[in-house]
Amino acid sequence: MVKTGKLRSGASQKLKRWKKGHSSDSNPQTSRYRQAARSRFFSRPSGNKSNLTVDALKLHNELQTGTLERGGDGDAMEEAAFTERTSGTFLSGLSDCSNLTFRKVQRYWESNSAAHKEICAVLAAVTEVIRSQGGKETETEYFAALMTTLEAVESSESLAAVAYLLNLVMKRVPAAVLIKKFSDTAKAFMEVMSKQAGTDSVSAVRWILSCLATLLRKQDLSVWGYPSTLQVYHGLLSFTVHAKPKVRKAAQQGVCSILRGSDCMFIDNAPSHHPAAVTTAKYCIKEMEQAGGNKEDTTTLHVLGLIKELINTFPLSSVKSCCETLLRVMTLSHVLVTAGAMQAFHKLFSSKPSSSSMSAELNAQIIMALYDYVPSENDLQPLLAWLTVMEKAHVHLSSLQSSLSLGHLPRLFAAAMSCLLSPHTQVVSAATQTLKTLINECVAPHMAEIGPVLPSTSTGNGLSVIKMFRVVEEGLSYRFHATWPFVLQILGCFYKAAGKQAHPIMIKSLQSLSDLRVTPSFPFCGELDLAMGAAVESMGPQVVLSAVPLQITGIDDDMEFPRSWLIPVIRDHVKNTQLSYFTSYFLPLASTLKQKGLCLSLVCTVCMIPLDCLLYFQLFDFTHILFFCFNVYEIVGFLSCVFDSAIQKKAYRVLEEMCGGERETCKKFVQGNLEQLKQVLLDNLKSASSPAKRPRLKCLIHIVKQLNEEHKDFLTALLPEVIICTKEVSIGARKNAYSLLVEIGNAFIQFSGNSKEAINEYLGHVYIGLTGSVTMITCTVLALTRLVYQYKDTLDVSPLEQLLHNVCLLLSSRTREIVKACLAFIKVILFILDVKVLASHVSVIMEGITNMKEDMRRHCRMKLKSIFTKLVRKFGYELVKSMLPAEHHKVLANIRKVEARTKRRKLLSKDEEDESDKKRIIEDILAETDSDDSEDEGPKKGQKKPIKQKAKAWLKEGVSDDPLNFLDPKASQRVLATNPDLKKTAKVEHGFKVTSDGRLIIKEDDEDDGAKAVLFWCFMMLTTCYFRSAGGIGIHRPLGGRQESGSEYKSKVTYLNMTFH
């Protein structure tokens, strides 16, 4: 008899259950394990919901009766097709799709997203229909089938899936097909957009917009002359101000791709601007004018974002109209609108448009107009943006018309120098960088054309240079003493750029610098020495010493030698000077002082490319030359064996200076002796010593830059040596080796014209090193790592994937150097490859890491951990864990904990920065009704922080009671983006008056009371510091012993016995 009673806990859940109405059945029918077995085959994802929906069946039926006709094999073909279909699975058309366009879709089948499942279902159905009709699964067949499907489906989910697949395939469809089917395709797209525009579904409209942009980008110039084409384009353009961000972004990207990358813009005799550029500019202007001054309308901001990307593609007339509109909307004094307009101007000037888009006159007019929008010195971000825009505008104007640019520079110099008085360090630094850039790019290149600049110059560009330097020289006044380091940088830059031609107007500033240098405790001696060194480099020591004499004659001199600091400055910076001045001034001075060390240390630098070398040696006495040669003849044999490598290194350094010289003489020398240099460098390939590798490689870098396509064999012969040098002991040699590899790659690109083919050819030569010795393999992998990183934007994905496979095979090597180089390559691959492309190669990387030897894994454990961390961040912990064996799971668990801890800390720090929302009390609610003082008093306790997009502007009031004139051009400077009163904090009242320099004032009549107060304060500090109660953690914790009786009544603090007299 069976024992009755309750089942043990948990057993009831394991009992088999009957469905309702089937309790008379002997056993319930379960198929859990069979379903699990089916899911292991490449079928639908596990789950209760089937993807074989009514829409999918309708799609399948429509495709079978659509425009695609079956092959002509009759019933036999149809029967074979159905026989093959019965042996497949639900996603057979997806799993074995032969078209590489849909490779990224094949990994969606395991996704839980409904949109991804719909995409997989549509692709599977379309593939099956194409196969059933005898198709070859080309892009054109998929395009035709998907267009038929687009007209058949009705639900938004299916439309989005079809549009997504169309977006993928249309990029690979031949242009002739899209040109021929333009009318029908555009009509179908416009109908779908008109239906879906009013719905809440975003995906379908988003992908249809991308398809429409691809279709328009492939059209010929003749098609753009039809009104229907412009009508379709306007349909795309209208979505650029859509309220939904994804739709708006897709439309703006589509418009940008059409105006920038249409096929008709890359043909022979292509127009300077796209035919739709003018209509796009008119649309943007119209939208901004219709939005008007409504600050709540975001249309202006959306249009500004579009103009920022497209303004450099407009013709000159459209650019002028857009700039006038931008200047008008800036008068609204809306912070975000002004920032967007400044970004548009910055993009316009920094892209360096051609004269067909930006003339010198228009550039100058924009510069003059922007002076009416100078922000306040206390407005940090707008002022930084204004300085950057003005810098780019003047640099571009200098490239168009240098004389016009020089005429506008003095006013900008004055405005930028006034920014040095700002209390914000960022503004001072930005103004300094702006002035240095203007000097280097707008003044220095044209000084040779300007010629000598004298104080008496009153016209022309020389007068502009004088005005600019006078403004900078004013920075040495005491008013700028807080920013003297920045002023000295600007002066040094000016000396270096214009000192050779304009040194007569700079004498006074050199004397001022000398006076500052001898000032006691002058804190900026280093910056001043650099500025004076720049003057020595450009003007020469003779000009500098005539303005600032050394005051050393050897007769009754000041024994402290106050200007002796000039000698090291001259020694470190002199170049291109005259030997005659050295012999006429410094040598007699050294003889007089009988201290030749300091003065004679100038010999090395004075002899660096002297200007009067030939003239000076004509006056030299050669009668004693032979005598000196016989004296050194006997030791030449000994020196040849001792200093052979050193002499070789010095010889390469001389050759480096000759090959890298910027003078025309050096360039002519290299071109005239190029064949001889090549022969010498190739013959000495194996005999070069290790110390000589660094200058030798630098010499080769200079030579490679001057080669043409005829010398490709020379570059190929150099490659093995350059690759081996990537493992040199010298850091400088390794850097030069990597730089030379990049220069050779640039040379291949220059020879070919097609960058992709050139890089593939170049990498083919480098691949040969993978078949060499262990050292050669290691160096080749390192070289490939550098080249892959350098040309990551040029390389195709297919050769990169093949290279990754080969490197992963090398991970099983027993040589540590090879393995470490391969891991470095993998880290670079993880950094440069897109996640979608990298996803298909994770298994290859994991397989290579798994095949590593045990001692290799232990030796490279830190590099492996870094790679695992990057993979976990990109693909998740579970996926990486499933691909690695159990011995790596402990490291992965540690990585997950570290990442979780880091994430928690970031969230915690973010929460601490944000103020917690507290319950508002009745006083706060009543305070909100006071609208007059709400902005002045700042945010109250309990109020929520304002949203960043809702930026406010503050109006700076004047000191007088006169009303503010809003028609004044400078009224915009009183509109601030930041509240100037927020940073003001109440000063602590300590009871004492303070002088202007910060000293306390204590009156004499309160001397006794003040002394007692000070004594009492010291007494309280002592009792607090030395006799505090116990407490804390660790060794400072209170002991848990038994308390003495009456201890609770004792005093907790013991005071010192002090007596006040």
TrEMBL record:
Keywords: Membrane, Nucleus, Transmembrane, Transmembrane helix. Belongs to the RRP12 family. It comes from Astyanax mexicanus. Residues 24-33 have a biased composition (Polar residues). This is Ribosomal RNA processing 12 homolog. GO terms for cellular component: nucleus. Its main location: nucleus. SUPFAM superfamilies: ARM repeat. Residues 1-47, 929-949 are annotated as: Disordered.
